[in-house]
Prior knowledge:
By secondary structure, the chain is α+β, with helices and mostly antiparallel strands. It has one helix spanning 136-164, and strands spanning 2-9, 14-21, 25-31, 36-44, 47-53, 58-65, 69-74, 81-88, 91-96, 103-110, 113-118, 125-130.
Amino acid sequence: MSELNGRIGGMTQGYDLRADWNGERLDGRIGGTFQGKDIKLTVRAGDVDGRIGGTFAGFDADGDVTPQSVSVRLGGHIGGDDIHLQISGDHVRGRFSGRLDGKTVDLHVSGDRLHGRIGGVLDGKDVNLTLGGVPTEVAALAAVCAYKALEDQQAHDASASSSSGG
Length: 166
């Protein structure tokens, strides 16, 4: 069994990502025991589906994953986000959540590591993962899922503090 480990974001404003990969299923945790989400993705013949988080506080993942590209929808048809990544050599590049409102994904493979950035200089998050035998395309998808989970939590925290800080 392969193991994906690392961090999305910084030391204080980030999430750990730990997941096992059995060649078809990625199963693990984004974040900690109390503040985080389970990640369960199944990849079969280039098709990926799964769930990040629970029944109520989570989002679905559905789309296509190949060694050359990732094209996945996170969430529903109305309130969801698209991921479009191209994988070429040791580079993973693309967009998350649209051409205008979205974030740039710029990741690199160095040995057994996937590292880089999702988002811009000011509003982005660093990615630093140890692949441990997990395919690059699956690890890149997991990184974007962790980024979305972290952004969703930060937006929720900001909304809660602004509504209570009257």
